[in-house]
Specification:
heterodimer, A: 334 residues, alpha+beta, Cyclophilin, 7-stranded antiparallel sheet, 24 strands, disordered C terminus, B: 242 residues, Gyrase A, domain 2, 2 domains, 7-stranded mixed β-barrel, 4-stranded antiparallel sheet, disordered N terminus
Chain lengths: 334, 242
């Protein structure tokens, strides 16, 4: 472990995250971890390591003085990034020398950018995870003046790669039935699918409010006892405006829940900034499981999809399979 | 339990793609809660490979399945467990007993007592006399739902969400009490202040309470509570009776 990063300037909500907790629901601690699990998988793929802790940057990054040679990867919501004032490719893994200054600006689109480092950030862990859960007082919120430690880099030569975007974003966000779906009438469920929601300004890692003129309130819904809730559940409080729960959600809740967002589609809701339009579509549980399994397969293959940043197109035989236009730096992929 | 309840419960519903909720009733009663806690203890003791975790809430037990495993077999196992015994037969609790000091100077004590139809003095007397049980842990880490108070304490949540209650505040609604671990907004009425941290990541036992624990409150003065803030469990006394 070495002290490698001095924080000279920092956004208001830069936190240490990893995949979060498993098996802590019974104690009242939700899954937590990276809000955009796909971007976390992409960061790990670029770095070539798994289960390391990364920095999640909500809306804005910071200025970091690098004290020891390191490798960094940048994923998630694209933010302007420079190393000693030279532009850095987003969705890439880069070599950094001691003394260089890394600057990460505000997000151009999307909510959460990720900074991974070879060896991972080393901060206190609770029940195996370094994730930051503010409500629980766990993890580490990065502050100006922090000197962040990193672990041993296991792949020091893996640099100069980019991960072309393979996300699909045009389809409605897929949901399946959840705890109270069948208490909502057929008409209300259909209206839910036909409504275009707007991500409200009210939202954080716990969840985001979905705005629409219409009420989806369930008659008698206030008498439901509190039950286990999961990230992805869309609850409908008394006023009728749905609220989608994210990584740091509470573990129990008494509001009726109309649908649950597929885990593989949840990053898109997390990355939606205020004003983003969102639509939902019910799929069967079987189709939902198939979609999630397919996403897990894609994630496990991301490492092999990383390609050298500088590459002569003459030598790329499958050039057409790369999304060169919508790729690494367009800023539109979230 | 009426006949309708017997027929419908336990009821099994899916939560998202990998969650299964086994409900034991539609309202919070001691018996339904006991059934959920007993079932949770039973399944936690013998989870098969396809079940990743289980968690009890007030009236139900949540199980998370492994979507990469044999989900059909896991579901069958859950159904077999549900059918394996009468979960509504009362069982002894776990024998852990807490006495937690509390200063009843919360700003909404008067309002809560009025809604319960009694004086403030009587409200304090009743809350310190009753032995409650941890019906479940949830919402935030280690946070207990304690119940059940007498039926006249079935007071609603507030219409709006209150500004933050302080950490370790005691709040009341719906015949239940909650000790908040951190400062947080809530629709429950703030009636008292403890020094009891339900969750402390730096303590050898980060989660103080377990579902089924018995909890009684003991009246204390404000100065006493302030002095107990640094004590490991906020001055709470703990014993195991059986």
């Amino acid at each position: 472990m070495i002290l490698a990063i001095l924080v000279e300037k920092i956004g208001p909500a830069v936190t240490v995250q990893d995949a979060g907790w498993e098996g802590t629901l019974a104690m009242g601690l939700s899954r937590g971890g990276a809000a955009d699990t796909r971007a976390l998988a992409e960061a790990w793929a670029l770095i070539g390591e798994r289960d390391t802790a990364v920095l999640e940057m909500a809306g804005m990054g910071g200025r970091f003085k690098v004290l020891a040679p390191a490798r960094i990867a940048l994923t998630g919501a694209p933010m302007g990034a420079t190393l000693d004032n030279a532009h850095l490719l987003w969705n890439g893994v880069h070599c950094v020398e001691a003394g260089q200054v890394l600057e990460i600006e505000t997000a151009r689109t999307g909510a959460y950018g990720y900074l991974a480092i070879g060896g991972g950030f080393v901060t206190p862990r609770f029940y195996g995870s370094a994730s930051t859960h503010r409500g629980a007082g766990l993890g580490h919120v990065v502050q100006v003046g922090d000197t962040l430690a990193i672990g041993t880099d296991t792949k020091p030569d893996r640099v100069g790669l980019v991960l072309p975007s393979v996300r699909q974003n045009s389809t409605p966000i897929r949901v399946v039935a959840t705890a109270h779906t069948r208490l909502f009438s057929h008409d209300v469920r259909r209206a839910f699918e036909e409504t275009t929601f707007e991500r409200s300004a009210r939202g954080n890692r716990q969840g985001v409010a979905l705005e629409t003129g219409m009420s989806f309130a369930l008659p008698g819904g206030q008498s439901i006892p509190s039950e286990t809730v999961i990230p992805g559940d869309i609850q409908v409080p008394g006023q009728g405006a749905p609220f989608a729960l994210l990584a740091d959600s509470q573990t129990t809740g008494g509001y009726p829940r109309i649908a649950a967002i597929l885990p593989c589609d949840l990053p898109r809701v997390a990355q939606a900034i205020a004003g983003t339009q969102l639509r939902f579509k019910f799929v069967t549980r079987e189709d939902g499981i198939a979609a999630e399994l397919a996403e897990r397969k894609v994630r496990s293959g991301l490492g092999a999809r990383c390609v050298p940043i500088l590459r002569d197109p003459m030598h790329i035989q499958d050039l057409l399979s790369y999304q060169l236009i919508s790729g690494a730096i367009s800023g539109k992929e979230i | 339990m009426n006949k309708k309840t017997t027929q419908r419960f336990p009821e099994l519903v899916f939560v998202g793609i990998d969650g299964v909720l086994v409900r034991f009733g539609a309202e919070v009663t001691e018996q339904i809660n006991q059934a959920a806690l007993t079932f949770h203890r039973h399944v936690s003791a013998s989870v098969p490979a396809g079940v990743l975790e289980s968690a009890a809430s007030l009236t139900a037990v949540f199980l998370r399945l492994d979507i990469e495993g044999n989900m059909g077999a896991a579901l069958q196992w859950i159904e077999q467990q549900i059918a394996s015994q009468d979960w509504f037969v009362s069982q002894s609790s776990n024998g852990r007993h807490w006495i937690i000091p509390c200063c009843f100077d919360g700003p909404q004590l008067g309002e809560a007592a009025a809604l319960a139809g009694i004086s403030e003095q009587k409200a304090i007397a009743q809350i310190t006399a009753v032995t409650t049980h941890v019906l479940t842990l949830g919402f935030a880490p280690g946070q207990p739902y304690l119940g059940s108070l007498e039926p006249h304490w079935d007071i609603p949540r507030m219409d709006g969400i209150a500004p933050n209650v302080p950490a370790q505040a005691l709040v009341v609604a719906l015949r239940q009490l909650i000790i908040f671990n951190n400062t947080a907004p809530t629709g429950w009425r703030h009636i008292g202040q403890t020094a009891f941290r339900c969750f402390d990541k730096d303590r050898p036992e980060p989660f103080a309470l377990q579902a089924g624990d018995a909890v009684r409150f003991e009246q204390a003065g404000r100065a006493e509570i302030d002095a107990l803030l640094k004590a490991p469990f906020g001055g709470a006394k703990f014993e195991v009776t059986s």
